[in-house]
Amino acid sequence: MLLPLVSLAVLHITCGQTTGRCGIGGGTSKIVGGHTVAVDQYPWFVALVQSGEFSRAQAGSNSPLTVFCGATLITARHAVSAAHCFATFRAQGGNWKKRLVGVFGLSNRCTPTWKASSTFSNVIIHPQYNGNTVKNDISLIHLAKDMSSFTPVCFPPAGTTRHSGEVTIIGYGTTKENTNKSPCSMMEATVMEYTRKDCLATNVASQIRNLPGVVCAGLKNGSADSCQGDSGGPLMYQTRGVYVFEGIVSFGNGCARRNNPGVYTMVSYYRNWVTSRLNNMRVITAG
Predict the structure, then answer these.
(1) Superfamily for domain range 12-28+40-154+270-275
(2) Could you say which of 78, 81, 118, 137 is catalytic?
(3) Residue 200 and residue 195: Cα distance in Å, rounded?
(4) Does residue 231 carry a catalytic annotation?
(5) Is 7 a catalytic residue?
(6) Beta bridge pairs of residue 135
(7) What is the pLDDT of residue 217?
(8) Where is the Peptidase S1 domain (predicted)?
(9) What's the rounded mean pLDDT across residues 16-45?
(10) pLDDT, tens only, 74-100
(11) Has this prediction a pTM greater than 0.85?
(12) Is 81 tagged catalytic?
């Protein structure tokens, strides 16, 4: 059961040439170990699907949509995801970017119901992405359509370091390890972000020791975590009533295992890489 929404203050911010609002969402319920959540609570979430499947849904098919990854809207024309979400498609060659669609307001993927969609004019995968070490696991999507009717997430301000405390993860990924069954609706869970020192004391230490620009999050008892299909989606924290984009779902050892936090690409670490590729558009920051 969803808990009542809390009232959130609207944050109006001027950042460069951009005036608007960001990170306005809702939800207080506490994805493995999570609960379903109304998709309107996180309007910046973008469900990534294959265009052939989406075309069938547009034609009236009731076949479920497979959300292979998530992404996060940061301007009206740009979204951020994980690099590994696109590695397989890029390897297939051809005009692979045209075979993908971003779906907004996907309230039900099993009997597909959504508000808007956009193809991609470009997908920029970090040039130093390494699929073996998962280093630089970040990508920038250029949307073919203007999505200004959807509120973007707040981007971390310049000079921001890692957050500590509660963070939220959302997505349509599987709710148990080693299963292909995904929920019909978006799920959310609240977990804790680890300090670098604490993460190096967990079972993922050997995987992150030489990885700059990552954060760890989870619950020590393993009761909540991101899982297969959640990749590319956001890790967020709240400040002054708005959500700030902290991380991108990258990898983990299984799902919700004790002493195995999820690993997330740290958005603030890649701030310059992202903002220098926005074609003169600006992100909106919280503060």
Answers:
(1) Trypsin-like serine proteases (2.40.10.10)
(2) 137
(3) 9
(4) yes
(5) no
(6) 130
(7) 92
(8) 31-279
(9) 68
(10) 999 999 999 999 999 999 999 999 999
(11) yes
(12) no
